[in-house]
From TrEMBL:
Residues 94-106 have a biased composition (Basic residues). Gene3D superfamilies: alpha/beta hydrolase (3.40.50.1820). InterPro entries: AB_hydrolase_3, AB_hydrolase_fold, Carboxylest/Gibb_receptor. It comes from the Eukaryota. Residues 146-401 form the Alpha/beta hydrolase fold-3 domain. PANTHER family: ALPHA_BETA HYDROLASE FOLD-3 DOMAIN-CONTAINING PROTEIN, ARYLACETAMIDE DEACETYLASE. It comes from Brassica campestris. Residues 83-93, 117-126 have a biased composition (Basic and acidic residues). Residues 81-133 are annotated as: Disordered. Pfam families: Abhydrolase_3. GO terms for molecular function: hydrolase activity. Belongs to the 'GDXG' lipolytic enzyme family. This is Alpha/beta hydrolase fold-3 domain-containing protein.
Length: 436
């Protein structure tokens, strides 16, 4: 059984979440096409382009018409040995200047409490390093790309939330991948299908980035816009001098090894994006979705499963609270638990046949009322010969590996490592050297 601390935290979590959902229902914000991708009362982690804790991060607003953003998590393993040595040499040759160390964001300097002016000058001289910038003169290691969709019941969370930042850093390191955490638009300002469309938009953006990076080798015209090569970091600029290529992805990303990972309601988005990737086929090249990971997906249906009956009042996201979240997410005229966004096995589900879906790893928790429907979906995939194992964690609750309070538990760490073992079957350049 979950610990007493988890049970108490769950009680307060559900009270606060239910209060937030009722407020959004009683006083709904006006529809806003631009939308919001994070709430003002959320605990967020600032992006840090230096390799703090072995991962550098940056935020990119990829759609000028909406609030859609991505946070890039670049693990230090992407650096070539020469780049690592350069960072070490810089730190040794300038021991008193932390800004020359590309792998650390800050140092602690003892301050003289009797001299405020001197302390202020010290603070300025020890400002964080401006961030990692790949060198066009050095060959870079290419890493697979993982698109991550956060949870939060459609109305909360964000790619920059403190909990999501911690989780994505962990995944980037254990899986040895570049993580793109998607800051999709939240409900109720933007109801279905906004979040799903944002997921597809990021996948298309990744493909565009890969194609533009190839244009760095020569001057070309793309969509009627003349692209000119710059000698600095191989950037491509348009006629106004605006950079069009994301340098971290151009230097280090291999989009032909793309994995989707969805947490809770993000699992529903990931599954939708996977279907759209199958439909697009070669039109997405060079992007290829090779696998997806669904972590306790937010599935529901009109005909209740055994777990939905037995565990309806389970921890954190119980069934009544989740129903409120679906009410805020689905348009009023489309509200139905058998909606294709809610039930992956609904009779009205459109898209490609299940046999064409990518390999799918499903993570479920013992004390989660959504578990049975996720397992049923995995079983249907297996029936048509799709690799779709299920990892079930005992004494675990919904979001046991991603919730802020539970992130540092041994079970959360073990889950990330289990995901890495399976994912590496499909992203390893040396073939299926791993088994599960």
């Amino acid at each position: 059984m979950p610990s007493v601390a988890v049970k108490l935290y769950s009680v307060f979590f559900k009270l606060l979440l239910k209060h937030r959902l009722h407020n959004l229902i009683s006083s709904p914000p006006s529809p806003d096409p631009f939308g919001v991708s994070t709430r003002s009362d959320e605990s967020v982690a600032a992006a840090n382009p230096s390799f703090t804790d072995g991962v550098a991060t940056k935020d990119i607003h990829i759609d000028p018409m909406t609030s859609l953003t991505v946070r890039i998590f670049l693990p230090e393993s992407a650096l070539s040995p020469s780049e690592l040595r350069r960072g070490e040499d810089d730190s040794h040759s300038h021991p008193h200047n932390p800004r020359s160390d590309r792998r650390h964001s800050h140092v602690v300097i003892p301050l003289n409490q009797t001299s405020p002016e001197r302390n202020e000058s010290r603070r300025k001289s020890y400002e964080p390093y401006g961030g990692y910038a790949p060198s066009a003169k050095r060959s870079s290691r290419k890493l697979p790309v993982m698109l991550q969709f956060h949870g939060g019941g459609w109305v909360a969370g964000g790619s920059d939330s403190a909990a999501n930042d911690f989780f994505c850093r962990r995944i980037a390191k254990v899986c040895d991948v570049i993580v793109l955490a998607v800051g999709y638009r939240l409900a109720p300002e933007n109801r279905y299908p906004a979040a799903f469309e944002d997921g597809v938009k990021v996948l298309n953006w990744l493909g565009k980035q890969a194609n533009l990076a190839d244009c760095c080798k020569s001057n070309r015209r793309v969509n009627g816009v003349e692209l000119k090569k710059l000698n600095v970091q191989g950037h491509i600029v348009d006629a106004f001098g605006a950079s069009m290529v994301e340098p971290w992805l151009a230097a280090h990303a291999d989009p032909s090894r793309c994995v989707l990972l969805g947490v809770s309601c993000g699992g529903n988005i990931a599954d939708y994006v996977a279907r759209k990737a199958v439909e697009a086929g070669k039109l997405l090249e060079p992007v290829k979705v090779v696998a997806q990971v669904l972590m306790y997906p937010f599935f529901i249906g009109n005909n209740p499963t055994q777990s939905e009956i037995k565990l309806a009042n389970s921890y954190f996201y119980d069934k009544s609270v989740s129903a409120l979240a679906w009410k805020l997410f689905l348009p009023e005229k489309e509200f139905d638990f058998d909606h294709p966004a809610a039930n992956p096995l609904a009779h009205n589900r459109s898209g490609p046949p299940l046999k064409l879906m990518p390999p799918t790893l499903t993570v479920v928790a013992e004390h989660d009322w959504m578990r049975d429907r996720a397992i049923a979906y995995a079983e249907e995939l297996r029936k048509v010969n799709v690799d779709s194992p299920v990892l079930e964690y005992k004494d675990a609750v919904h979001e046991f590996a991603t919730l802020d309070m539970l992130l540092k538990t041994p079970q959360a760490q073990a889950c990330a490592e289990d995901i890495a073992i399976w994912v590496k079957k499909y992203i390893s350049l040396r073939g299926h050297e791993f088994s599960y």
